[in-house]
Amino acid sequence: MTYWLISNSKAGDGKRGRDFWLAALARAGICDPECVDFSNLGWAKQIQPGDVLLVAGGDGSVNTGARLCLDNQATLAVLPSGTANDFARNLNLPEQPDPLCALIAEGKTQKVDVAEYGQNLFLNVAHIGLGTLPVREAEPTEKKLFGRFSYGLQLLRKLNARRGFKAEIRCGEGYASGRWLSIAIACGAFFGGGNEIPEAAANDGLLNVIAVKPRSIPQLLLAFLQVRFNRRVPKSTRTLVRLRGQTSTIHTSRHKTVTADGDEAGTTPLTVNCRPGCLSVIGQTIIRTGRSADGNN
Q1: pLDDT tens figures, 251-265
Q2: Dist CA 120 CA 265 (whole Å)
Q3: Separation of alpha carbons 288 and 199, rounded Å
Q4: Mean pLDDT over all residues of the chain?
Q5: Which residues, in sequence order, are CB contacts of 14 under 8 Å at separation 6+?
Q6: pTM for this model (two decimals)
Q7: DSSP for 194-207, written as a single string
């Protein structure tokens, strides 16, 4: 078995780069992993089944690592170093580097789902509408200064200018149509730097679609707070619609930009399929958030 380390020096505030993680890995007994570069993936052909791919970066970097692991039947180990690190939250990974690297050395693995669209995939969430703006417009300097809160800053700046877009949403047996401010299709249980999707897990075999209707800022804030503190999303309200299923299709009246795991990912129409339990990752457990609609855990 070989340990491979890829590090994104531009992720987060830049403090958790390659040298930072090499030192922590060495303290855990993982010495001299193969250090490789994101810019040229020619080395990926050398990955063997059972190898461990260590990814130091944000969710976009982890996305790349997941594709390589699926292609080569390797195991993904996340070294959270980005702005949001939402996929790492699903795995309940230790925040400090030494316990995390000790967990990697132990080698305990979990199986998680992957969302596929076309030839690509995402682990956390794909956005259409307002939710794409933090990816498309957030400045690198702003992300370094404000971290995950830079996403919220971008949304607040643009909220008043958005009237929404027309779309039809299908997910599982559910259907919704109308004008929407934002549509999110989630594979995991977290997005936007720690916001929870209630009653969700990265290994439940389901996609969660949460669509937000154009409403006033007070109405949107109220809906957000209700979900945040009640830890559940009603099936449908005047502001939110939630659908669940293994497959989801979004058709918009005009082509809309799609972002996935923090990167631009094309335009609508969008069809997403959940591949249950196909990715092996280092982790002690998978977090399941919130509670069911009837209030049970």
Answers
A1: 999 999 999 987 889
A2: 8
A3: 6
A4: 84
A5: 144
A6: 0.84
A7: TEE-SS-BTTSS-E
Q: Give the CA distances from residue 173 to residues 24, 125, 246, 257, in Å, rounded to whole numbers and listed in that order.
A: 47, 20, 10, 25
Cα(105)–Cα(227) distance, rounded to whole angstroms? Answer: 38
Identify the residue whose tokens are 């990697």.
Answer: 104
CATH 2.60.40.10 fits 120-278, yes or no: no
Sequence-ordered strand ranges (E) for 190-269: 190-191, 195-196, 207-212, 240-245, 247-252, 257-260, 263-267
Span 85-125, pLDDT tens digits: 889 999 999 989 999 999 999 999 999 999 999 999 999 99
- C-alpha 293/C-alpha 295 separation (Å) is 5
Give the residue carrying structure tokens 């307002």.
130
Q: Where are the domains of the chain?
A: 3-107, 120-278
Question: Which structure tokens are listed for 67?
Answer: 């594709």
What is 3-107's CATH topology? Answer: Rossmann fold (3.40.50)
